Automatic annotation (TrEMBL):
Source species of the chain: Acidithiobacillus ferruginosus
Annotated protein name in UniProt: Preprotein translocase subunit YajC
Lineage: superkingdom: Bacteria
Amino acid sequence: MNFSPIANAYAGTAAGAGPDSFFIQVIPLVVIFAIFYFLLIRPQTKKAKEQRQLIATISKGDEVVTQGGLAGRIMQVGEDYLQLEVAEGVIVKVQRASVTLLLPKGTLKKL
């Protein structure tokens, strides 16, 4: 019987373990964050800013639509609530933050 000896296997150095591999691993994370920022975060903050500006500028006589779809003319403006005339002689109290759309003057017929 002739047994041949098995050669010893030695571990080599790890390829790509330098500083370049760290940046290659981080680049996809940065790209994903940039995509989320431009497609989700930025438009949402822009819309929220426009909504805050709309709520701050509404005044008596403006015609608005609320989140519930209620359209009417503002009769009185308070700090947190508005009185909205939805039909002649019908006035409802709504939260100021519920206003979603400012209509052009004259959109609603005479209430």
